[in-house]
Design a protein that fits this description.
alpha/beta; binds iron/sulfur cluster; about 30% helix; Rossmann fold; 4-stranded antiparallel β-sheet; single chain
Length: about 325
């Protein structure tokens, strides 16, 4: 769980002035065993920072990270290693995640040694073989002695997943795990992640800017914009009836073979020209989406909207709900 977590970074500009980047602001997210939650948003929305907070690569500026209901913080290297026995992060770039100087065998063996120190060399080799088979790199003997550069992008990402599974985690955090892969194998990778959830009851946070893959894989969707979570709920509800204008824009902008060409709410015509995501150094006052929002009211420019619960775990952070205007979002909806 991330509980009201914020992460601010201080950066120095070329003139030596420092500024604070509000990369994540007051984010709350909870993953249950066997759940696949998609964290969706544009690049620069804070998704990766939130994943790194959940992986304990960063400590939050405020708020807390919790595992099995217990807050985790500090504790040094040993505590982090224990945490990483439960929570593993898979990066976007499988090539950068593997040591290029070492064969697959070494990359897996190192993780097994660190997290299962009681296993001897033969037992670790048997485990490494089984792990490669689990991620469909068979026969494993053909892959154990390969270097990362001898593998395709999809094979490398499978090795990265096998290495993450070596520690028998309960939670996988996938930061855009398929976005650098060839389109032809993305579906295979999504199916592999679904298989691991089904077999191991893994909880998976699937971070993506691609709402179509989130729709395919996930049970629930959380949407981030400019460092804040703006909507979260069951996938079918969020996609069929988004309750935040930004979610609606994301869905309207996503390719959907079932949606007729031109079938886009005219409110969002030209929305891409309404502006880039805001700077996180000096985000807009009030609702951070207001400069791009076709529904923006005067209040939105000065007052941050509260979270409105909509039942069934669905909520949205938008003033429309407080003013009885949420129905305006339903002008164009699409089946999940
Ligand atoms: Fe748009 Fe206002 Fe809702 Fe923000 S709070 S998304 S500006 S209507």
């Amino acid at each position: 769980e991330a509980r009201n977590v914020s992460k601010h970074f201080t950066v120095r500009g070329s003139l030596g002035r420092s500024a604070v980047v509000q990369a994540v602001q007051d984010a709350t997210v909870r993953l249950k065993p066997g759940q696949i939650l998609a964290l969706v948003g544009e690049s620069g929305s804070g998704k990766t920072t939130l994943a790194r907070l959940l992986a304990r690569f960063y400590e939050p500026t405020s708020g807390e990270i919790a595992l099995r209901g217990e807050p985790v913080a500090g504790g040094g290297r040993a505590a982090r290693r224990a945490y990483h026995s439960d929570v593993q992060l898979i990066f976007q770039d499988p090539f950068g995640s593997l040591n290029p100087l070492h064969r697959v065998r070494y990359n897996l063996d190192r993780a097994l040694k660190l997290h299962h120190p009681s296993l001897d060399g033969d037992a670790r080799l048997r485990r490494a073989t089984a792990l490669l088979e689990r991620v469909s790199l068979t026969p494993a003997a053909d892959y154990l002695d390969k270097f990362p550069h001898e593998l395709s992008g999809g094979q490398r990402q499978r090795v990265v997943i096998a290495r993450a599974l070596a520690v028998e985690p309960k939670v996988l955090l996938g930061d855009e795990p398929i976005s650098m892969l060839d389109v032809s194998i993305r579906l295979e990778m999504l199916n592999l992640l679904e298989k691991l959830r089904a077999e191991d009851g893994l909880a998976l946070l699937y971070i993506t800017h691609d709402i179509a893959s989130a729709r395919y894989l996930c049970d629930d969707i959380a949407v981030m914009y400019a460092g804040q979570m703006v909507e979260s709920g069951p996938k079918e509800e969020v996609i069929a009836a988004p309750q935040h204008p930004y979610t609606k824009l994301l869905i309207e902008s996503s390719p959907d073979p079932e949606r007729a060409a031109g079938d886009r709410d005219e409110l969002f015509e030209g929305a891409d020209e309404l502006g880039e995501p805001p700077s996180l150094i000096d985000p807009p006052a009030g609702c951070r989406f207001h400069p791009r929002c076709p529904f923006a009211m005067t209040q939105c420019r000065s007052e941050a909207p509260p979270v409105t619960g909509l039942g069934d775990g669905h909520w949205a952070r938008c003033w429309l709900h407080q003013h009885g205007r949420a129905g305006e979002l339903a002008r164009t909806t699409h089946a999940a």
